[in-house]
């Protein structure tokens, strides 16, 4: 047996401290009702904020507090689309101007992939 091992004690399983003279924190039982009909209680500190919801240990669904504590309604932000963010930076008229400018460049063969470029008349004459 290696010299590093502990003899006579289980690792991580047993405390040798005595509980005499220790004052435990005040506790309370908090009940929850599951939508599946299960009722269970959780032990919590008296000073703890009681959550309105708790996961049912039997079926895993969200159970509500039996004390009638309601969950807080979270204010949801409206979804911002790419179009909304674009309109924050530019007006519709500016966007139309940019679109026509980019389409002219694309059609002229100055930008974009080569397979979309229309052959110009100068190139046709040079090849002939």
From TrEMBL:
The record's free-text note on cofactor binding: Bind 1 Zn(2+) per subunit.
Record-stated family: Belongs to the RNA polymerase-binding protein RbpA family.
Binding site residues for Zn(2+): 34, 38, 56, 59
Quaternary assembly: Forms a complex with the RNAP catalytic core and with free principal sigma factors.
Presence of keyword Methyltransferase: no
Keyword hit for Zinc: yes
InterPro entries: RbpA_sf, RNApol-bd_RbpA, Rubredoxin_Fe_BS
UniProt lineage: Bacteria, Bacillati, Actinomycetota, Actinomycetes, Propionibacteriales
Name under which the protein is recorded: RNA polymerase-binding protein RbpA
Function according to Swiss-Prot or TrEMBL: Binds to RNA polymerase (RNAP), stimulating transcription from principal, but not alternative sigma factor promoters.
PROSITE patterns reported for this sequence: RUBREDOXIN
Swiss-Prot/TrEMBL keywords: Metal-binding, Transcription, Transcription regulation, Zinc
Leader sequence residues: none
Listed cofactors: Zn(2+)
Annotated HAMAP family: RbpA
């Amino acid at each position: 047996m290696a010299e590093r091992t502990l003899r006579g004690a289980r690792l991580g399983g047993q405390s040798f401290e005595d509980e005499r003279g220790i004052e435990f924190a005040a506790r309370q039982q908090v009940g929850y009702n599951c939508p599946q009909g299960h009722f269970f209680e959780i032990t919590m500190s008296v000073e703890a904020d009681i959550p309105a919801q708790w996961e049912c240990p039997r079926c895993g669904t969200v159970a509500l507090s039996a004390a009638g504590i309601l969950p807080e309604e979270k204010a949801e932000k409206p979804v911002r689309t790419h179009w909304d963010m674009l309109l924050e930076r530019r007006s519709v008229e500016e966007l139309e101007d940019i679109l026509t400018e980019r389409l002219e460049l694309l059609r002229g063969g100055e930008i974009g992939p080569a397979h979309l470029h229309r052959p110009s008349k100068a190139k046709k004459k040079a090849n002939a």
